[in-house]
Specification:
This protein is mainly α. The protein has one domain. The protein is built from 7 helices and no strands. The longest helix is centred in the first third of the chain and has 31 residues. The termini are far apart.
């Protein structure tokens, strides 16, 4: 199947809309942390809150998707690198049982519901953002890798969603 320029324009438009939505989600949560609104950062008392660093990764990745959709590949790669660095540093904290001081860097309080560490995104979230950063950093020549990483992100996201639906913390939080 050959992709025409009309198809590509349509895909880029959809990507731009998705990128805007992802970035706005992150910005909304960051705003919630800055004004101290628990209702914004934790939409349900039984859910884990979205951590500030998670929201920051949503902003970076959403902006990276927007940049990619308007052919600003260097900007997209840079935003992907930022996403990857924040997420990789977080995952390293879990793996090496250490605290790099990044979890509470931008906030002064934490909501400790269904959270193992104050202000730290979940390890599966970290892994998804590492993969997202890699997708944004890869070029067209690496289409199969981008598709594979995207499929892994979708699978991990669906598992987390299912974990919330059946109230199984070990699925959406990996038991940490």
């Amino acid at each position: 199947m050959k992709i025409t320029s009309t198809d590509e324009s349509r895909y880029n438009f959809v990507a731009m809309i998705c990128g805007i939505g992802v970035a706005l989600l992150g910005l909304t949560v960051i705003y919630g942390w800055l004004i101290g609104s628990h209702e914004i950062v934790q939409i349900n008392d039984s859910f884990a809150p979205m951590q500030f660093n998670t929201a920051l990764c949503f902003v970076f990745s959403g902006m990276g998707i927007m940049a990619w959709s308007i052919y600003k590949r260097t900007a997209s790669r840079f935003l992907g690198l930022l996403t990857l660095l924040v997420a990789a540093a977080t995952l390293c904290q879990y793996i090496f049982v250490t605290d790099l001081g990044i979890d509470m860097l931008f906030q002064s309080e934490a909501i400790m519901v269904k959270t193992s560490h104050a202000g730290r995104m979940a390890p599966n979230t970290s892994l998804c953002f590492i993969l997202t950063g890699l997708v944004l950093m890869l070029t067209r020549a690496h289409l199969s890798a981008r598709l594979g990483f995207s499929g892994a992100i979708l699978l991990l996201s669906l598992l987390a969603f299912a974990g919330y639906q059946i109230d199984s913390e070990s699925i959406y939080g990996w038991g940490i």
